[in-house]
Automatic annotation (TrEMBL):
Amino-acid positions noted as binding [4Fe-4S] cluster in the UniProt annotation, renumbered to this chain: C296, C356, C359
Gene encoding the protein: dmdA_2
Subunit structure of this chain's protein: Heterodimer of LeuC and LeuD.
Organism listed in the record: Methanobrevibacter cuticularis
Protein name: 3-isopropylmalate dehydratase large subunit
Domain Aconitase/3-isopropylmalate dehydratase large subunit alpha/beta/alpha positions: 5-407
Pathway in which the depicted protein is active: Amino-acid biosynthesis; L-leucine biosynthesis; L-leucine from 3-methyl-2-oxobutanoate: step 2/4
Length: 413
């Protein structure tokens, strides 16, 4: 069996299962946040269940609109705070902790072999630690709150076997953008996307989270990396939960393997208005109005270090505004202690509190009609970061920093 089949078989108390089968799985972690949570709460109350199935397995962070930027957002926060209090939810993180997909692993909620659901499509990020993690709808989450279970169709698996040594200034973001560009936005629809090979083995856990985070952008049901020593060291340092490591049998009948060579890969950019519209940075060169460094894709300390190294001693170009939004309080504190925040401020960037920022087009730093944003986030759909007449490009942190200095999309020199 594949990793996904093994994890879902265990979660549904079966000895085995296969792709295409419907299983009813026990949920280990259920996450909802300030934007999608209120609908889950409303649906849960309509069901009529008095108490959630297990308040210790529900995680509720505020991250999308924090601090509240409108009366609607403030009301959503009130709804969720009242729900947390009424249900005795133990893992509630108010407005200062960070982006949900960053803080769940950081705070020890994610371990290998679990089934994790969240009312956010990028919940697949957590597969970087060897869990089966996927986004679900708010009404589905109401059923999870009520029963602790959810049905799944067991997915087929596509395993990206990535080999080669990345050049200087080429990172995991470039690898995954390149894959999405080749596979297409629907090329892995409802498949578990495994990332393997020597390139992935050499990556940090943070880098692997970038790959898994964007599995959804090619239609994937989840993203996964087999746990290794790096994974287990990360988990042991942050969690005391029991876990079980699963790995894919390469003779699994539902497994497709795609070989990818990254030796000659150059920095990649996703161009408007689709994530699979990917080009080498040398073919872009577009002038920009805003740079966003952050999000659940590239707001980690490694990303901030890459950007600060390029920005140090340089100034952001006239006419360009740059937003730097660390993905969590932990990342923010590390950046502060390492002097990275000073580097950003000295270069002319605006540093914001840990949150989703402009990624969802809902809060902090939207673009106006005709404006161009270069973002380290994961989606560039029309209107995603503000005006439908604006344009959003996606890149790594290094390309974002270099472009902020030049005023147009360029590779780091």
């Amino acid at each position: 069996m594949t990793m996904s089949e093994k994890i879902l078989a265990k979660a549904s108390n079966k000895s085995s299962c296969e792709a295409g089968e419907i299983v009813m799985a026990n949920i280990d972690v259920a996450m909802t946040h300030d934007l999608t949570g209120p609908l889950s709460v409303e649906s849960f109350e309509k069901i009529g269940t008095e108490k959630v199935w297990d308040p210790s397995k529900i995680v509720i962070p505020f991250d999308h609109q924090v601090p509240a930027d409108s009366l609607d957002a403030a009301n959503n926060h009130i709804i969720m705070r009242e729900f947390v209090k009424k249900q005795g939810i133990k893992n509630f993180y108010d407005v200062n902790e960070g982006v949900c997909h960053q803080i769940l692993p950081e705070l020890g909620h994610v371990v290998p072999g679990e089934v994790i659901v969240g009312t956010d499509s990028h919940t697949c990020t957590h597969g970087a630690l060897g869990a089966f993690a996927t986004g679900i709808g708010s009404t589905d989450m109401a059923m999870v709150f009520s029963t602790g279970q959810l049905w799944f169709k067991v997915p087929e698996t596509i395993r990206f076997n990535i080999e080669g040594t990345l050049k200087k200034n080429v990172y995991a973001k470039d690898v995954i953008l390149n894959i999405i560009g080749h596979v297409g936005a629907d090329g892995a629809t409802y498949k578990a996307c495994e990332f393997a090979g020597s390139t992935v083995s050499n990556m940090t856990v943070s880098d692997r989270m970038v790959l898994c985070n964007m599995a959804i952008e090619m239609g994937g049901k989840t993203g996964l990396v087999e746990p290794d020593e790096k994974t287990l060291n990360y988990v042991k340092a942050r969690s005391n939960k029991p876990y079980e490591v699963f790995k894919t049998d390469l003779d699994s009948s539902s497994l497709e393997i795609m070989d990818i060579d990254v030796d000659n890969l150059e920095p990649q950019v996703a161009c408007p208005h689709n994530v699979d519209n990917v080009k080498p940075v040398s073919e872009v060169g577009v002038e920009i109005d805003q740079v966003f460094l952050g999000s659940c894709t590239n707001g980690r300390i490694s990303d901030l270090r890459q950007a600060a190294k390029i920005l140090k001693g340089n100034k952001i170009a006239n006419g360009v505004r740059m937003l730097v939004i660390p993905a969590s309080k932990e990342v923010y504190t590390k950046a502060l202690n390492e002097g990275l925040i000073s580097t950003f401020v000295d270069s002319g960037a605006l540093v914001c509190n840990p949150c989703c920022g402009p990624c969802l087009g809902g809060h902090v730093g939207l673009i106006g009609p005709g404006e161009v944003s270069l973002s380290t986030s994961n989606r560039n759909f029309k209107g995603r970061q503000g005006s439908p007449e604006g344009k959003v490009y996606l890149s790594s942190a290094a390309v974002a920093a270099a472009s902020a200095i030049k005023g147009r999309i360029v590779a780091p020199e």
